[in-house]
Design brief:
The complex is a heterotrimer of chains A (600), B (583) and C (122). Chain A has 600 residues and is an alpha/beta fold. In chain A, 39% of the residues lie in helices and 16% in strands. Chain A contains 23 helices and 18 strands. In chain A, 56% of the residues are buried. By secondary structure, chain B is α/β, with parallel strands linked by helices. Chain B starts with a strand and ends in a 14-residue tail after the last helix. The mean pLDDT of chain B is 94. In chain C, a hairpin with a 5-residue loop joins strand 3 and strand 4. The longest helix of chain C is centred in the middle third of the chain and has 14 residues. Classes of the chains: A alpha/beta (600), B alpha/beta (583), C alpha+beta (122). Chains in contact: A-B, A-C. At the A-B interface, helix 17, helix 18 and helix 19 of A face strand 4 and helix 2 of B. The structure holds flavin mononucleotide and iron/sulfur cluster (3 copies). Flavin mononucleotide binds next to strand 9 and helix 20 of chain A.
Chain lengths: 600, 583, 122
């Protein structure tokens, strides 16, 4: 049996065949012969590798190199370069393996998904072994701590953080340096440093990612914070649903202690600092700073009014500095590279980068870190790869249940704290959900409100009863029973809850409703006035109908209907009994003749 | 205290720097509505009724907890503020069982008052209402969650002041409810039935278990001989129910009203208080002399007894074996009095009018039926008595004064002061001092054990003995004191403990004063003042000098601590289950 | 030794750990093992690498667990760094794919391009 050193596979699927795969085959034969490779390389036709839109596709084995959109005139080059000189013809590689410099994207860093990102907080995530302190140290770990402890006064540290322009990444965007300064100035015998790793925002997981991928960066930053404000004890409040994060933090704390970065007499400088983990039971409201602290104290996690602020009276009534995981993750880099460097990234009022968890109707879901000021368009189309299935972008939701929806018309707004607030949304902890044309905005508002109603702690009536009433109204509207007065009531409630609720949860809970009312009021009105859901989502307002002309009376729909509400007989078009229909849409999917339509 | 300059509604004010906006505003006669706020007990900013606009703040702030600071600028009124308060109140009302007409708190309901003040004409935001079963299994307290507005005053009272923590907020969001854990009944958890929660509840969600029906029925029963006794604290508070100022003494009117209601005899529990002093005083002297268990701790507060059984069973042997005065009285009524009057005790019906809900629980203890009949057949609180008086159409304020019936209507000042914290201690000291020194001492006002301080200590020289005494009122203070004794940090001969803060004058069955009043008046103090006035007006002020008590011993009991006395007047208590320690 | 000195030493000693450039480690295989990776089966992929390396008696290649790179939809994600520091990202890895990656990439230095990120990311 003849042994070939290489195989060339050419797709002969119908699409590719239409695109000259036959000619390509012939050309390979000719070129191989010309280069006397016919005994070393075998050309085969193969099934479709599933990249038809980029056909014809040629794959060279054993390298597994995929050439796409190959034209007969390219064959010469492939044979001469690749098969003869063993040099991959980068130009012809699969489109996405390419980038400007003609390098194939073998590595994640080379992909478009990564190109517009700038990784500061996530710098080590996925790069180093989080369970091995040596790898962190090799990546400049604990250098910032060393620098601080051996050469900076607490005020210099605070000044550095202030100058960097870093703002809290946990949602509020409060200037971090200022917070450190308040905590520093509060005089007391005990002070605490807390890390908020509760991350209750549905869909957000940046903090988890940092804790799992780079736990030492948080320990280092908290120790620096401890030195800066004059605290000896830190707490990391992490949700119990993050067992891997907890385990890695445990390991990291242990290793840091063994290496003298934590505990008594850190780095022989006389400064002592310890960190304890506290597990949260997963209530969203426990991410709110005062609730978090009551929870650490062992009581029911409920917010209390501020002032007094934690920096004055926090844990056990002592001055407490509380920052988010991502906020801390930036600190060591700021110390090492200097505040000016950090401040040079981002916009005038929002410095540095922000991590977002992008999800929803977008091709490249995942976790990204982008410089502040990047536009929504860049995030969605350049990094996110656009909307799947050629659908139209409708809105992006930032800030989770506390945030709002940003419509397509504002896609070019740079993402930063203040612009998002102006748009009626907020930065939040970094959830970013993309919605396409098939999304009903009333339904989306309802979705987020369901979450808040579930998560309200129940302490204050505007949130406890008010959000419940808002949800009831939204349920009424989406079930086709709403009136114009209901929209009015919704607005009254929303505006007043925002002003009166005790904590951030209630104060921001109306945002999804207010922002959708602001940009998509027509959809609300269509629901109440015309009893129509323009996106075709709200079940009570859609109808499935069988087009008589297209129906071939096959009866497949009737057989598949779970409630048996379709009837008919051979020779006559089938009919759906609307009063019995549960709007599951099965019939529409099953009809082989596409004779069933959804009417909104 | 440092003063700061602030501005409220344009008025420049100078206030101490530890003030809240609410305190500052009230000082300047600017009224801000409140609902969950209860001075010193519940300052949590939860209900959002006291919201105000603080310059520079995005959202409204709760005035009741917002600390003032130099340069603070506040607005308490604006269309937006009024609308926000209204919306919040309408929301509360939308989830409130609004059966005001038949509610025991109609007229004294703070929610009702607020709805009127904020001019609520319509509830715009109706929707699902929480429906939870009523809890009326406790012999003392009825809990109606459908009226609860979740102000948490009761929780703060029970958890922070009484340190019982029988109730707490459970569940979250719209499902939040104030309840014992696992939705148990109050009867199934270590609630000590003190009723302090009732006194702080702004609405009708907590109330006493009503006994008026039973008493009306008994009154209508011609076969029964109905006698009633009234505790000392009732007479200094009952007037409040009829619009009289706090601290008005209405002893004579009360007796007149009871007679009009149809009771055959109206007695004074103070007589039994004097008896208690003789029994307890003897017990104290014996324990000191014979090296018995010390400190001796008073046993007249049934809330405290239950607390001790649940949480400090190791102190049960320290308790005086004396029954509480009204139980002693009941036992004597069904024995001595019945014999004397030739009445079949089975046909007697003894009603106690008490400032206390715990006595409703105590009444049904099986231990307390030494005559073979329950010592007491029904306990009415001060509030229930007032309701009966109103129901009977009696014009209370214009009643003439009448006096208690004989026999056993005579009492001393010592018996009267039982109603205030430190009173039992003081009454006992008056008698013990005389007995131990063998002479009648003139100096009988032991002011060191009076007053509102949570724990009071005194060293009293009686002859050769330096008697170490301590007084605690409110169970949180009791906890503190007992822990101190337990850890050996303190030792005493004699300890008085009352379950209710302030003593019986502030008992869980007393007239309810709303938050607004309690912010400016210390009701315990005012009522106690009346008690001490009553004491001073008494011709006899020492228990052992009560001629009727002397006669009772001579005719029936023999001497204090006798076998007969023990049979009728003493008892023992046993440990009960409790929760683990509460910090 | 003072911790600061100790740290210097550690830092020196640590050089090359994560790039695979250390003398005794010619290649580093980093398996993304954050929640997203583990949920997608990274543990099995890691086990498969270790088994495969052991079976082939390869001792100069090190496997390590790392956190999440943010492309969670591509998990399990494996990044291989060679002596020259060049990194290759394999995505949607399975134990089945591991054998080929070891045979071709680890042993023969030929990248399995059809498993790399280029085929996945738009
Ligand atoms: C309802 C609610 C939930 C919150 N959840 C979180 C959270 O999960 N993580 C977080 O860091 N901050 C959360 N926050 C914000 C915190 O209260 C606080 O502002 C933040 O942790 C401060 O840190 P930073 O200044 O570093 O952002 C939440 C706030 C609210 C009102
Ligand atoms: S706003 Fe909601 S979560 Fe916050 S205190 Fe009020 S009820 Fe609790
Ligand atoms: S009666 Fe007393 S112990 Fe019982 S719940 Fe009320 S306050 Fe608590
Ligand atoms: S029972 Fe009364 S005092 Fe307790 S929370 Fe409810 S309304 Fe407030």
């Amino acid at each position: 049996m003849q042994i070939y050193r290489s195989h060339v596979l050419i797709c002969n699927d119908s699409t590719c065949a239409q695109l000259d795969s036959g000619k390509i085959m012939e050309e390979f034969g000719a070129q191989l012969k010309k280069n006397k490779l016919e005994n070393e390389v075998k050309v085969l036709t193969a099934g479709c590798p599933g990249m038809c839109e980029q056909g014809p596709v040629v794959v060279v084995y054993p390298e597994g190199t995929v050439y796409t959109m190959v034209k007969p005139e390219n064959v010469k080059e492939i044979v001469e370069e690749h098969l003869l000189k063993r040099k991959i013809v980068k130009r012809l590689l699969h489109k996405d393996m390419m980038e400007e410099g003609d390098t194939p994207a073998k590595a994640l860093d080379d992909t478009k998904y990564f190109k517009k990102q700038l990784r500061i907080a996530l710098r080590n995530c996925g790069i180093i072994n989080p369970e091995d302190i040596n790898e962190y140290i090799e990546h400049d770990g604990y250098k910032a701590l060393e620098k601080v402890l051996t050469g900076m006064t607490p005020l210099e540290v605070i000044d550095t953080v202030k100058k960097s322009g870093l703002r809290g990444r946990g949602g509020g965007g409060f200037p971090t340096g200022l917070k450190w300064e308040f905590a520093y100035k509060s005089q007391d015998d005990e002070k605490y440093v807390c890390c908020n790793a509760d991350e209750g925002d549905p869909g957000a997981f940046m903090d988890r990612s940092i804790l799992e991928g780079d736990p030492h960066s948080i320990i280092e930053a908290m120790t620096i914070a401890g030195y800066a404000i004059g605290s000896k004890q830190g707490f990391i409040y992490v949700r119990a649903e993050y067992p891997i994060a907890v385990k890695r933090l445990d390991i990291a704390i242990q290793q840091a202690k063994e290496h003298g970065f934590l505990g008594e007499n850190v780095l022989n400088t006389g400064f002592s600092f310890d960190i304890e983990l506290r597990l949260g039971a997963g209530a969203f409201v426990c991410g709110e700073e005062t609730a978090l602290m009551t929870s650490i104290e062992g009581k029911r996690g409920e917010p209390r009014p501020r002032p007094p602020f934690p920096a004055v009276k926090g844990l056990w009534q002592k001055p407490t500095l509380l920052n988010n995981v991502e906020t801390y993750a930036n600190i060591p880099v700021i110390i090492l590279k200097g505040p000016e460097w950090f401040a040079s990234i981002g916009t005038e009022k929002s410095k540095g980068t922000k991590v977002f968890a992008i999800g929803g109707k977008i091709n490249n879901t995942g976790l990204i870190e982008i410089p502040m000021g990047t536009t929504l368009r860049e995030v969605i189309f350049d990094i996110g790869g656009g909307i799947p299935n050629g659908k139209k972008f409708k809105a992006a939701q930032t800030g989770g249940p506390s945030g709002g929806c940003i419509p397509a018309s504002h896609m070019d707004t740079p993402i930063e704290y203040d612009t998002l607030v102006q748009l009626g949304s907020m930065m939040g902890s970094g959830g970013l959900i993309v919605m396409d044309e098939d999304t009903c905005m009333v339904d989306i508002a309802k979705f987020f409100l369901e979450f808040t109603v579930d998560e309200s702690c129940g302490k204050c009536p505007p949130c406890r009863i008010g959000t419940k009433r808002m949800l009831e109204i939204l349920e009424k509207i989406t079930s086709g029973k709403g009136t114009e007065e209901d929209i009015e009531k919704l607005e009254i409630l929303a505006n007043n809850i925002k002003l009166s609720a005790l904590c951030g949860l209630g104060q921001t809970a109306p945002n999804p409703v207010l922002s959708t009312l602001r940009y998509f009021r027509d959809e609300y009105e269509a629901h109440v006035k015309e009893k129509k859901c323009p996106a075709g989502v709200c079940k009570s307002m859609i109808h499935y109908v069988i087009n008589e002309a297209l129906c071939k009376s096959c009866g497949i729909c009737a057989r598949n209907c779970p409630v048996n509400c379709i009837s008919g007989q051979r020779g006559e078009p089938y009919v759906i009994a609307q009063e019995k229909c549960i709007k599951c849409g099965t019939c529409m999917v099953k009809c082989p003749f596409k004779a069933i339509f959804k009417n909104v | 205290m440092k003063m700061v300059n602030i501005k409220i509604d344009g008025k420049e004010l100078q206030v101490p720097e530890n003030y809240t906006i609410l305190e500052a505003a009230r000082q300047a006669n600017i009224s801000i509505p409140t609902l969950c706020y209860l001075k010193g007990i519940n300052e949590i900013g939860a209900c959002r009724m006291c919201i105000v606009e603080v310059k520079g703040s995005r959202s409204f702030q709760a005035a009741c907890v917002y600390p003032v600071s130099e340069g603070l600028e506040v607005r308490t009124q604006s269309p937006a503020i009024r609308e926000a308060r209204k919306v919040t109140l309408e929301l509360i009302l939308s989830n409130h069982d609004r059966s005001c007409l038949t509610c025991v708190r109609s007229r004294t309901c703070e929610l009702q008052k607020l709805a009127e003040e904020l001019n609520i004409k319509d509830i715009r935001f109706n929707g699902e209402m929480q429906r939870k079963p009523m809890d009326d299994f406790s012999p003392s307290i009825v809990r109606d969650p459908n009226k609860c507005i979740l102000c948490r005053r009761c929780v703060s009272m029970c958890k922070n002041i009484q340190k019982v923590a029988a109730i707490d907020t459970v569940e979250r969001g719209f499902d939040t409810i104030v309840s014992p854990i696992y939705n148990l009944s109050l009867n199934e958890v270590p609630c000590v039935t003190c009723g302090q929660c009732i006194n702080v509840c702004p609405v009708g969600a907590l109330r006493e278990k009503d006994s008026t029906e039973i008493v009306w029925d008994a009154l209508a029963n011609k076969d029964l001989h109905l006698v009633v006794q009234t505790a000392p604290a009732v007479r200094v508070a009952l007037g409040e129910e009829f619009g009289m100022p706090i601290g008005t003494r209405v002893t004579g009117k009360m007796v007149a009203a009871l007679k009009q209601l149809g009771f055959a005899k109206v007695f004074d529990t103070d007589t039994a208080a004097d008896l208690t002093i003789l029994e307890e005083g003897t017990e104290l002297i014996n324990r000191i002399k014979e090296g018995g268990k010390l400190p001796l701790i008073t046993s007249c507060s049934p809330g405290w007894i239950k607390f001790c059984e649940h949480f400090y069973p190791e102190f049960l042997d320290n308790l005086s074996t004396c029954k509480s005065p009204h139980e002693m009285f009941g036992a004597l009524l069904k024995s001595y009095y019945a014999e004397k009057m030739g009445i079949d005790p089975a046909k007697m019906f003894v009603v106690s009018v008490m400032p206390c809900t715990a006595k409703k629980f105590e009444r049904q203890r099986p231990e307390l039926a030494s005559t073979g009949y329950p010592d007491v057949d029904a306990v009415l609180t001060t509030r229930e008595l007032a309701r009966m008086i109103r129901e009977a159409g009696i014009d209370f304020k214009s009643l003439p004064d009448e006096t208690f019936d004989d026999p056993m209507g005579e009492a001393t000042g010592a018996g009267v002061i039982f109603g205030a914290t430190g009173g039992v201690m003081e009454a006992a000291l008056r008698t013990v001092a005389d007995i131990l020194t063998g002479k009648s001492n003139e100096d009988i006002e032991y002011t060191e054990v009076r007053g509102i301080e949570g724990i009071k200590e005194a060293k009293i020289k009686i002859g050769d003995l330096e008697l170490k005494a301590a007084v605690a009122h409110g169970l949180g203070n009791a906890r503190k004191l007992l822990d101190r004794i337990k850890s050996g940090k303190a030792d005493y001969h004699f300890v008085e403990i009352m379950a209710c803060p302030g003593g019986c004058v502030n008992g869980g069955g007393q007239p309810i004063q709303i938050s607004e009043v309690r912010s400016v008046v210390d009701i315990s103090k005012e009522r106690a003042k009346a008690i001490y006035e009553e004491d001073r007006d008494m011709p006899i002020r020492k228990s052992h000098e009560n001629p009727q008590v002397q006669k009772l011993y001579k005719e029936y009991l023999g001497e204090p601590g006798s076998h007969k006395a023990h049979e009728l007047l003493h008892t023992h208590y046993a440990p009960r289950e409790s929760y683990p320690d509460i910090p | 030794m003072k911790p600061i000195e100790k740290m210097e030493k550690t830092r020196e000693g640590a050089i090359g750990q994560t790039t695979g450039g250390k003398q005794d480690v010619r290649m580093r295989i980093a398996v993304g093992m954050a929640t997203c990776g583990i949920a997608a089966g990274a543990k099995q992929v890691m086990d498969a690498f270790n088994e495969e390396l052991k079976r082939r008696n390869i001792n100069d290649v090190k496997t390590v667990l790392v956190g999440c790179r943010g492309a969670c939809r591509l998990e399990p994600l494996v990044e291989i760094t060679g002596e020259n520091g060049e990194m290759v990202t394999y995505v949607n890895m399975t134990p089945e794919k591991v054998a080929r990656v070891v045979a071709e990439h680890v042993v023969n230095g030929r990248i399995c391009i059809d498993y790399t990120v280029g085929t996945e990311v738009e």
